[in-house]
Amino acid sequence: MNYSMIFYIIGWILDVEAALLVPSLAVSLIYHESCALAFFITIVLCLIPGVILVRKQPKNKVFYTREGSVTVALSWIVMSIMGSIPFLLSGSITNPVDALFETVSGFTTTGASILPAVEPLQHGILFWRSFTHWIGGMGVLVFLLCLLPLTGSGYHMNLMKAESPGPSVTKLVPKVQSTAKILYGLYLFLTVMEFVLLLVGQMPVFDSLCTVFGTAGTGGFGIKNDSFGSYSTYLQGVVTVFMILFGINFNVYFLFYMKKPKEALRCEEARWYLGIIAASILVITFFVRDFFDSLFLAFHHVAFQVASIITTTGFATVDFNLWPTIPKTILVLLMFIGACAGSTGGGIKVSRVVLLFRSLTKELSQSLHPNQVRKIHFEGRAVDHVVLRSVNVFMAAYILIFAISVLLIGIDNFDLVTNFTAVAATLNNIGPGLELVGPAQNFGLFSNFSKLVLTFDMLAGRLELFPLLLLFYRGTWKRF
């Protein structure tokens, strides 16, 4: 284990987090708010260990998958702990466990909150809550790779794979650092596009920034107590479209950027993703049409909610907890499916669901024809056995973590729907669940123990399970 490189990268994470806290400090100063002092102190607390850790560059830059996974997991934990300090120092949240839950929910783009009301919060705190979504959406280590050659040549991919969502991560161009720059360039371009369109709809600048951060990172922290219900139909429509866009694999945008539209349009995962969204909207609209004044409004709000759930954003315009059973069931299923691999969305991912379905059909076919040789194809190529094995192992770990989490939070003695959807909402990085954790409720009712379990789920879901699980695996720390 190359500990010197791990601490070196964590040092850079702290330095970058200090820099990322500056905009929130600036917002606090603009609005003459007392939380400015909290942000200043947190920046200093990040810089002191950060500067010390990066002062000397390690001689040994060898960085394998093991180091990559450990570094990513520890970086996100350290980043979350430091990011929770402004909540505590400003008095916005007084319980350290609550502050950590809120911060992890932000960085992991979950959007689950323990706060019963957000409108009383100071602008600087609201800005930081939303900005954590944008930071975590593409990943802070991917951001670092844009700026610095952190590890030895050829080892950057071990960091990107550990942080980027999806069953398989590939380079867009030969150099990983160039790939990171392209990804963040596309991310920033879509962010600016949405920001401009929100301003056109006369949304205030502060509201637009916070909304864009939540949409781009598919996070969902609102700055209104009703989430997104009080905004105009136009603004809700813009956010609906961009939630869907940020849920698409960024490789598709890269192909358009490289002027290869035919290849981009052939992306099988994106077609499945858009097809699932369209089918869900039509079915749910049919069942809830009588809940609204017109068919258009029913379609509009259903489209917003379907986009919000499948992309794991978590914004809400209505309390879908009041809808009939079938629409709620579809939304819960969408929680598990999630967005595309290589997007800012969470969940199991559309590509994994498709591969699991095709693996099932292959096994059924081979049970009837044992001598048949049949390959599973996806995106026009035969899927390697290693990829299929990783998908199956991921699902096994996912089900195990899910079951244990539901069991553990059962200690609070809430109803099964609340517990089940609370774990689904956190492990899939969605935000709202059903019943006591519905869109009109919050997660503050859980005990500190349950909140820590759900905090673990949020981190595990964002990091695709294995980087976090490896911290608890004895073999990770053995010397070879």
Strand order, main sheet: write it out.
1-2
Helix proportion: 55-70%
- Mean pLDDT reading: 88
Gyration radius, rounded: 22 Å
- Give the biggest beta sheet: 2 strands, antiparallel
- Which percent band covers the strand fraction? under 5%
Low-confidence stretches: none
Number of strands: 2
Count of DSSP helices?
21
Overall, the morphology is globular
The structural class is mainly alpha
Cα separation of the termini: 8 Å
N-to-C order of helices and strands: HHHHHHHHHHHHHHHHHEEHHHH
Structural descriptors:
480 residues, mainly alpha, two-stranded antiparallel ribbon, 21 helices, 2 strands, 64% helix, globular
Overview of this structure, please?
The chain is mainly alpha-helical and 480 residues long. The chain has a domain at 384-477. The chain has 21 helices and 2 strands. It has helices spanning 3-30, 35-54, 65-83, 85-90, 96-107, 123-138, 140-147, 156-163, 176-200, 205-216, 233-246, 250-257, 261-265, 268-288, 295-310, 325-337, 350-368, 385-409, 416-427, 448-462, 466-470, and strands at residues 377-378, 381-382. It has a two-stranded antiparallel sheet. Helix 3 crosses helix 8, helix 7 (140-147) packs across helix 9 and helix 14 (268-288) crosses helix 15. The mean pLDDT is 88.
